[in-house]
Design goal:
The complex is a heterodimer of chains A (312) and B (370). Chain A is mostly helical and 312 residues long. Chain A is flat. Helices cover 74% and strands 2% of the residues of chain A. Chain B has two domains: 227 residues, P-loop containing nucleotide triphosphate hydrolases (Rossmann fold, 3-Layer(aba) Sandwich); 132 residues, no CATH class. Chain B is built from nine helices and 21 strands. The longest helix of chain B is centred in the middle third of the chain and has 18 residues. The chains are: A mainly alpha (312), B alpha+beta (370).
Chain lengths: 312, 370
């Protein structure tokens, strides 16, 4: 009698367990079904090319990009001993150094002044964010005119003060700075918009409370605005940094990597190796290195930056 | 001596939508002054105008005898507690409390001294190194209070500071704020939509509705002699029972269903055959034995609160609630005898809503007390 009761009980437990397992499998299958479009999309356009790039970086290829000879780490050794690549590595880091802080500081300044509640402030917000809507190609053409050695406005402006004309895009000393300048201008729109959004989400009560306490403008900026904006700033810095490492369009349009390879950033160097010199192996190796650098820096940034960010 | 004086203060947005109309009031030094009204009545706007966070459209605001309309908040020597506390989420409790003193570049030693005194008083000593998100609602509230106390400003403004707390904690903080105000001798302007808070905390209350002052006075005065129908129904819980009434001969007829005998002396100042609103407090709908009854009413709802019982009756188209002491055995659908006296009824003009005659029994009681 007692034994029968126990067996009925364990039967019931078994049944519940079985039913639970069934439901779990069903849930997993359903979840995968929902993910399927993303999985397919990312596999074709992201995962496969990435794996293929790593694979190619260990091979020599023919002109059509098919692997021919396995060379192991030779591609990496070769590019690291090539002065051209080391130069482009240096150029890329300089370019990042010129553009990222500049973009952030200028956008933050514009966002702070555009956050004031004034009549017609919408006009300024539109102007400040408008570069977001301009394609790199169009912006580059526009800057090309500005940089033009004789007709360009920049040199004409200098000549008013009796200064000598500068070869903005042709002088090796100036070329990288010029490209950086135009890049900052192009990036401001996006960064400004994100920072303005961040500023608007700060609770106005905090400022009112500070007003009553008698805090001055810069005290509020330092003690409230910047700390409260830190998650947004962190995001913007990360995105701008990654973007800067991947710059291609304006280099291609403005200088084509010249003069004397002074603006030959890594992505442009990859492009030239792959699609001008048909060296898919070394191009892939460079791409892998660039990937490693960006990944490393982003991780480092998360490690160091996260502590200083105040999420609400 | 009056601390704050408002003369004809008005507020309107875009020169048309008016939020506050000609507010005239004077708040004494050391007084606990409560602004109460339903949401949208303009009470918070008025407080923010006193603080200097909102522009005053017209009229003058005096503090200590001087016009301060033009002064920024920091020069008005006041502190403010916001509804959501406005604590800085990225700063610790200590930094939050010292934020204002730091901004004024006060001597570090003095800062330390005040911090410790305040933290001691508010029971925050253990929590100084924590961030606001690691605190409970009551603790956050306490930090907000501490921030206002530490400034040692003689005037403190509070904008619904207790509305985010649960009922039990609210009752406790009510007492604590009141105690703090008396101890420090602060002038307090306190905004709330909760009439219980207003009644229990205020030395004086100002009732606002639709941007107009309805009545200013002591809590008991507002309860006994509400200036109009709005105040009568807003102050007191449950709200005052009301019904359309008219005097016909020796009878007061309420809602065409209740006839209450009146003597000539009771209605001598009331116009005959004029539409009025009669109001009676829940405690004056008294419980009587069948011998003393004046009326018999149908019970439509009973609420047992333990120490008292709320019984709701149907009177014409209105629902009247009676508050009886003790645990009464009454059921829905019963016909219950009640005692109603014209002495407990307040009369309001049906058109303007203004008070015509307050319940006379209260005056007698006050007389006895003196």
């Amino acid at each position: 009698m007692n034994g029968a009761a126990v067996s009925v009980q364990s039967d019931a437990a078994d049944l519940i367990e079985k039913e639970k397992r069934k439901r779990r499998t069903k849930n997993v299958l359903k979840g995968i079904l929902f993910l399927l479009p993303s999985i397919v999309f990312f596999s074709i356009f992201l995962f496969y090319p990435m794996i293929r790039t790593v694979y190619l970086s260990f091979f020599l290829t023919n002109a059509s990009g098919a692997p021919t000879v396995f060379v192991g780490m030779d591609n990496f050794i070769q590019i690291f001993s090539a002065p051209l690549f080391l130069n482009s590595l240096k150029t890329t880091f300089l370019f990042v150094l010129y553009t990222v802080p500049g973009t952030i500081v200028i956008s933050l300044f514009l966002a702070v002044i555009a956050n004031e509640k004034l009549r017609g402030i919408g006009v300024f917000r539109t102007i400040f964010s408008s570069t977001m809507g301009i394609s790199v190609a169009a912006a580059s053409v526009f800057w090309m005119f500005l940089f033009h050695p004789t007709m360009g406005w920049l040199n004409q402006f200098l000549s008013i003060f009796g200064m000598e004309a500068i070869g903005w895009l042709t002088d090796p000393k100036w070329a990288l700075l010029s490209v950086s300048l135009s890049t900052i201008w192009m990036n401001i729109g996006f960064t400004f918009l994100i920072l303005l959004g961040g500023l608007q989400s700060i609770d106005s009560y905090l400022y009112e409370s500070a007003d009553i306490d008698g805090a001055g403008y810069f005290y509020k900026l330092r003690r409230i605005t910047v700390p409260m904006l830190s998650p947004t700033l962190f995001f913007v810095v990360t995105v701008t940094l990654i973007n800067a490492f991947q710059t291609f369009g304006q280099v291609d349009m403005l200088t084509r990597g010249g003069p004397q390879n002074e603006t030959n950033v890594i992505v442009y160097s990859i492009y030239r190796d792959a699609f001008v010199n048909y060296q898919y192996g070394t191009a892939s190796a460079q791409a892998v290195i660039l990937f490693a650098i960006i990944l490393g820096l982003t991780l480092l940034q998360f490690k160091l930056g996260e502590r200083k960010v105040h999420y609400q | 001596m009056s601390h704050i004086e408002l003369l004809n203060v008005s507020k309107s947005y875009d020169k048309q939508r008016s939020v506050l109309n000609e507010i005239d009031v004077s708040i004494e030094k050391g007084e606990f002054f409560v602004l109460v009204g339903p949401s949208g009545s303009g009470k918070s706007t008025l407080l923010r105008m006193i603080a200097g966070l909102e522009e005053i459209t017209s009229g003058t605001l005096h503090m200590n005898g001087q016009v301060v309309n033009h002064l920024p908040p920091k020069d008005r020597h006041l502190s403010m507690v916001f509804q959501n506390y406005a604590l800085y989420p990225h700063l610790t409790v200590e930094q939050n409390i010292l934020f204002g003193l730091n901004a004024k570049k006060m001597d570090k030693k003095e800062q330390k001294k005040r911090l410790h005194e305040t933290a001691e008083m508010m029971g925050l000593t253990e929590l100084l190194k924590r961030k606001p998100r690691q605190l409970s609602g009551g603790q956050r509230q306490r930090v907000a209070l501490a921030r206002s106390v530490v400034s040692e400003a003689p005037l403190c403004l509070m904008d619904e500071p207790l509305s985010n707390l649960d009922a039990k904690l609210r009752a406790h903080m009510r007492m604590e704020i009141r105690r703090l105000q008396k101890k420090l001798g602060l002038t307090m302007v306190y905004v709330t939509h909760d009439q219980v808070e207003a009644m229990t905390m205020g030395d004086r209350i100002m009732v606002l509705n639709d941007g107009k002052v309805q009545q200013v006075g002591e809590p008991i005065a507002l309860y006994n002699e509400p200036a109009n129908v709005f105040v009568a129904s807003f102050i007191g819980s449950p709200k005052m029972n009301m019904g359309r009434a008219v005097v016909k001969g020796q009878q007061l007829v309420v809602e065409d269903s209740l006839s209450i005998p009146v003597e000539a002396a009771d209605v001598v100042d009331l116009p005959k055959n004029r539409k009025m609103i009669a109001g009676i407090r829940a405690e004056h709908l008294s419980q009587v034995t069948s011998d003393e009854k004046t009326h018999v009413l149908d019970v439509i709802s009973v609420e047992h609160l333990g120490n008292e019982t709320m019984v709701t009756f149907e009177v014409g188209r209105e629902f009247w609630t009676a508050k009886w002491l003790g645990q009464q055995i009454v059921h829905v659908g019963d016909r219950v005898p009640v005692g109603l006296s014209v002495k407990n009824i307040s009369f309001f003009d049906a058109e303007t809503g203004e008070l015509m005659k307050a319940a006379s029994s209260q005056k007698q009681k006050e007389g006895v007390a003196i």
